[in-house]
Amino acid sequence: MVLQPLAGAERILWVDWIGAAVVGMLTLFLCEWLSAVGGLPLRVLLVVGSANLVYALYSFSLCMLPNRPVRLIEALVLANFTWSLLCIGLLVGNWSRVCVPGILHLGGEALYVGLLGLLEWRHRQRLTQGLTDRSRDSESLHSLASSDPDR
């Protein structure tokens, strides 16, 4: 199987899992500092970082599937929208102590995952096509190009 460059919709899944993994690791590694500068309780940051890593595992597993059932993409979208709302809830629940960096952290995360969820919802049918399908499509195009009588 030859891996082809990522198609447009496919990039969404990669941006999703890489973003979750990076934010999760940074949040866990820097949680004490983030708590001090952002005003968020340490336990909130530990939950946020851990949830991001768990989510990254799920979205990465979707990237690796040869065929993705639409229900798995829809579960990803639901997770994004749910997490977006939870980030807003954590922000509101800690409003009396949170500082600008904490607002930017949770507010930015809510916006980021909400927009990714929206993109994934809009492209959910295209996102069902995995690596195997793309290779098959590429091979079909290559064989068509090879059999072109004008060449």
Q: Features of this protein?
A:
151 residues; mainly alpha; 6 helices; 0% strand; disordered C terminus
Structural class: mainly alpha
The whole-angstrom Rg is 19 Å
- Which residues form runs of ≥5 with pLDDT under 50? 133-149
Count of individual helical segments: 6
**Ends distance:** 26 Å
Q: How many structural domains does the protein architecture include?
A: 1
The number of E-state strands comes to: 0
Mean pLDDT: 86
Strand content: under 5%
Classify the oligomer: single chain
What can be said about the biggest beta sheet?
none
| String of helices and strands | HHHHHH
Global geometry: elongated
Q: What percentage of residues falls in helices of 4 or more residues?
A: over 70%
Tell me what you see in this structure.
By secondary structure, the protein is mostly helical. The protein has one domain. 77% of the residues lie in helices and 0% in strands. The protein has helices at 8-29, 31-38, 42-64, 70-93, 100-122, 131-146. The chain is elongated and about 45 Å long. The model is unreliable at 133-149 (pLDDT under 50).
